[in-house]
Amino acid sequence: MSAVHASQPDTPAAEAAAILPAISAFLFEEARLMDSGRMTEWVALLTEDIHYFMPAQPAIYRRNLTGVNNERKMAFYDDDLVMIQRRVARMIHPTAWSEDPGTRMVHQISNIEVQPTGTAGEWRVFSVAVVFRSRNEADNDTLWARREDILRSSDGSFRLAKRVVTLAHNLLTNKNLNVFI
After folding, report:
1. Residue of 70, 43, 44 whose CA lies nearest to 56
2. Are 159 and 125 in contact (CB under 8 A)?
């Protein structure tokens, strides 16, 4: 919902405009936790029924009438809470060779838009994420993505219930994908 139409009280747009600062703060906190390697704390921001999905994005020509990827095609991530917990446990384990030396990351989150889902306390959130990763002397990657999240109100804050990450890249040249976007 556009903030332009948020001036009328008691409309979905006004409701979304009112909650936008709190949701933005949640997304910024989430990025800070990931950037500082506090992955266990990040996992605590997820719901029990989380679905974290990042499909592979092939180049699709206009003449291709089958359209874009859907959730039945190949994905880099198609994870529930248990799988995310396993990935995080591997990332932070002392013998994780892909994280020795540790990766330094910066998540930049922007273009945040909020829409009510029609379910009380639940919000659809669109954002853009840019993630810079640096490891060793010359291993640097930048990932660009659009995100569509479902956030749920929980104990005065929010929890992430669903994230669909759509990379802007057709081909990933990263040595690993030890990152949540």
Report:
1. 70
2. no
Residue 4 is predicted with a pLDDT of 45
72-108: pLDDT as tens digits:
578 888 999 999 999 899 888 777 666 667 778 899 9
Beta-ladder partners of 150: 124, 162
Q: What is the dihedral of CA 42, 15, 147, 31, to 10 degrees?
A: -30
DSSP 70-101: -TTS-EEEEE-HHHHHHHHHHHHSTT-GGGSS
Q: What is the pTM of this model?
A: 0.85
By the 8 A CB rule, do 130 and 144 touch? yes
What are the tens digits of pLDDT across the range 131-155? 998 877 778 889 999 999 999 997 8
Rounded to whole angstroms, the Cα distance separating 76 from 54 reads: 6
Cβ contact 76:54 at 8 Å: yes
Torsion-angle region of residue 23: left (phi > 0), alpha (psi -120 to 50) or beta? alpha
The answer, yes or no, to whether residue 69 has pLDDT greater than 50, is no
Distance separating alpha carbons of residues 98 and 180, to the nearest angstrom: 15
Among residues 5, 8, 2, the alpha carbon closest in space to that of 114 is found at 2
